[in-house]
Amino acid sequence: MEAKIPCATSSVAASPLALVPGGCVIDGAEESPQDNLRVQRSISQCLAVLDQGRSAFVGEANAADESLYAQENYDRSVLLKQKQALGFRMEELRATMRRVQEDGELCITAAREEAALHSLDLVLAAGQRDELTVLKQQLARSRQQNSEHLQAEQELRAELARTSATFQEITAVETDAQNAVRHEILQLQQVVQDLRARLAAKADEIERLAHANMRAGEEVSSATAHWKQARLRRLAALEQGCSEAVHARGSGLSGLSGFETGTRNMKEGWDLSALELDEDRSAEDEQKSLPLLGFCLGVLQDLQAVSTATGEPVNGTSSSGSSEFWLPSEGAHEHTSSSLAPALSAS
């Protein structure tokens, strides 16, 4: 029986569990002072229960065994104290273990966080790696496009050089054409200016000639009027002179008939040079016709004076050089030959 108790005590001392009333064991008792008192009371109750059990089985010990029993109690008390100290140490160890567990949990949490962060870093690194791969692909594609662009730029530069040369040639041709057109325009402008000047000069000349023609027409009309008046006066004087000559001579019928014939021939446009004088005309008739011929010569001289004053012949000059004049009022020609003047004067 005594051998079992040390085993029980040693098992109790070796166990980190706390004893409670009723023989119940609770693991993980708290470290507060109330818990410690409760543990001590539980231990005392357990010792009392053990004493009662020992007394029931062993009976009353004799006096000799009292000292042994006391020694055993002392040993038990020492063991209990050691057990209590061990319990305290165990509690400290448990608290330390709790702290270590908490630290471990913190470390686990930190490790988990670190693992999560590492996983996140891995995920981010994978994303960055994917982005880097995409960027590398884009860079390769950009390099390829750059090479293609450089090649296209070279081809474009060559095409541009060719087209620029062609364009320069076209520009030169166009410039020459424009210069030629400008030169032609300038020439045409000069021609137009010359034509305008000529037209203006012609217009001025036409206007001047029109005025001159008007003045000449007026002068011709005036000269014609003066000539008609002089003609009428000369005809009147001629008829009067002839009448006086007829009355003065009395017997100049043949001269009168010759005068009438000459006057009629003059009115009909005959030339006096074409008249044929009869060879058997008497000298008396010739003497009687001399005043008439002198009068006609005076009329011719007056007409020549009028023609000289106007600067133009009254009706022009014949091809033989003799002066001619026209009588528009009577509608017939009256010719007088200036070549007969010396013959008439001599006769």
Task: Describe the structure in your own words.
The chain is mainly alpha-helical and 347 residues long. Among the domains are: 4-114, no CATH class; 251-346, no CATH class. It is 79% helix and 3% strand. It is built from six helices and four strands. The chain has helices at residues 4-14, 33-58, 64-249, 253-267, 283-310, 340-346; strands at residues 18-19, 25-26, 324-327, 332-335. Strands 1-2 form a two-stranded antiparallel sheet. The chain has a two-stranded antiparallel ribbon with strand order 3-4. Strand 3 and strand 4 form a beta hairpin. Helix 1 runs parallel beside helix 3 (64-249). The longest helix has 186 residues, at 64-249. The model is unreliable at 1-30, 251-259, 265-283 and 313-347 (pLDDT under 50).
Concise description?
With 347 residues, the protein is mainly α. 79% of the residues lie in helices and 3% in strands.
